[in-house]
What does this fold into?
Amino acid sequence: MNKHAIKRPIVWAFGFFIAGITMPFFALLACVVLYWVYRYKPVFIFAVFFVVGAWRVEQSVFSHTYEIIADVAFSGVVVDTGYTAGGNQRAVVRGLHPSTGRRVRVMAYIRPHLPHVRLGQEVTMMGELLPLGHQFQQLRSQKIDATMWPENINRGDVRRTPMVFLREFRDSLASVYDQILPQRESAVIKSMVLGDRLDLDRELADLYRVMGIFHILSISGLHITVLMLAANRLLSLVVAERRSVGIVIAVMVLYCLMTGAAVATVRAVTMGGVLVGAKLFYRDYDLLASVSFAGIVLLLHEPLYLSNVGFQLSFAAVFGIGVLTQPVKRLLAMLNCPRMLQTELAVGTAAVVSTYIVFAHHFFEIPLYSVLGNLVVAPTVALIIVSGILVGLIGLVFMPGAELLSGVVYFILRFYEAAAVFFSELPFAMLTTGGGNLMVSALAVMVLCTFAYAFHAFGDELKKRMGYFVVSIALLIAAVFFHQNPMRMQLTEFENYTVKRLGGDTLVLGAPHGGEIQLIDYLDRYAVRRASLLLTTPPHPNDTARLEQILPRFQTIYLPAHAEGTTLSLMELAFYELDMPTVVYLHHGDIRTRNDVEVQVFALPLGQFEYKIRMG
It folds into this structure.
């Protein structure tokens, strides 16, 4: 292998950096193979990347608070604020650890009755300093070292730092939207251009998610690219091109900081900087190289970003565009798709299909019509982003002008909402796939890679490579089948439920007294659609809300016979807008058989039942 054998070495470096974070042994093995088998001498560069990756993740994982420190007074400066769904203020405070003296960042959850704090304010909080616990990955990816529920807060002066000025400027723009737009549309445009989701309507957000356009509510690559190219074109009319590039990059960095510097925004600004900066050196822009550079920068800062769903979705979409666009375009040409639609449809399909793997792995479902949804909104996205920014800026100096321009924003957002409602009513709008299995996800990635590999060839070579593609699909289908249909009985217990699975048969035993969220998550993870529920006690009227959560997941509901009459009305109440499942009342000694599952019923005191299950 000569020095030109590996193209885009920065992409390889990004891969080795990720391998160093996740599986350093395999990264080391790959380096050995490259050197001894292929005689690739610059392999030591890749070795440096995987060593740095392993070193950085060790630093990140072990540099935080492990023990509870009671009755502590922690002093520092507020560097970020927000609110939780429960109404508590969430504040990140940077200061010195009371025991070690090193600089730490503490996530403080401030209850409504306590005085709330401002960005840049000096504060002293009294209470317990707690380890990260079950929120470890989420909080460590934000550089948080400990958490705190302060019992008392003393507030000091506010430092007029550049971040404070940027946040106040963002708040001024947000107030413009609040004044001239209805609450729902104001919340959406604030999310799109300011990264502020505090007032976003959850129902509307779910509609956007079903349509597959939820990404437009985040400041990501699309937003930054539109703004950078528009600003660069405008500035190039009045200043030299090279100077305009520098100004645009500086403004975008400030914009990134103003909107909260989310992972997707930092990635987009880094890639956008490479895009416009390429002109300074008269170089062509390479998508895969720039996204790899952005990934290395982000993971150097915080390697645990790799476990962040937003990070995975963002990079999956961009890598999908870079790898799959041309193969998809070739496939569309073979299917006689109109040439004028091929490029846009190929880009949209590549980006969306690549994110399906992340959606299935983490959320156990995919928005089936997201390719079409993105095609519907694509012609207007650039217009609404630019219009939204202009409305805010004009509103700061001339409100009537902002009100006039806000009509564009209002009617586009109303169109998005109507389209989202339409897509949500289509059959299988959110397709339950199951997920959470690394082997299945890895095979899904292999399917996309073999597809790209096959459709980069022609003639007989294409036919030969199609065999690899077909084999990869067969392996994925087999893995999904065996993941969702175990060959021997699996038993899983939750708070008040026990789940027994064998093949495609699933029985859930329990009572609606807690653990419903975990049960639903389990059923979604394994895409269980053919389940039966055996209630060990008759449901109480207070259980109606819990029943509404779980009953739509079952085809058959088994109840003790003495519950007949009183329970039926309760079931109908829970299903007043849904199709009723089959309700079967059981008596002592009953034996029910379905497929390979046999259930025998025994009476117990207090009207409860015990079930003897035989599966297989």
User: Anything to note?
Assistant: The longest helix spans residues 309-334. The chain is about 55% helix and 15% strand. The radius of gyration is 28 Å. The longest strand covers residues 69-83.
